[in-house]
Design goal:
Blueprint (H helix, E strand, L loop, with lengths): L6 H19 L7 H12 L4 E2 H8 L3 H13 L3 E6 L2 E9 L1 H17 L7 H4 L1
Antiparallel strand pairs: 1-3, 2-3
Helix pairs in contact: 1-5, 2-4, 3-4
Amino acid sequence: MAAPPNPASDAQVALLRDTVVALVRRDGADLSARQLGVFLTCYLNEGGHTVRGLAAELNVSKPAITRALDRLGELDLARRKVDPMDRRSVLVQRTAKGSAFLRDLRSIMMEASGGGKKSKKAAA
């Protein structure tokens, strides 16, 4: 049985859909949901991020985080660096290209939410 309509959550789902569609339509590589989740966790949460910490925070395996970071590294959206305090640990670092991607994502979401300059008709 389907859940009853909820205008607030329906609006959030529509915003997510519009954002994902805009990301798919733009030039460049697409990120999977997991890759986007890892990216956003690294860019929106302060502090040093490790594979172990990201796996715990997102409740996924370390190999899954490693694969996501491999892709983010290929796209220069994040990079890994050996932790100078513990050479067994790897730190995830932000990149200039990743910061630009986050700015673009914010703009896309602003437009999708109706707060941007483009109307939905203009975008169609």
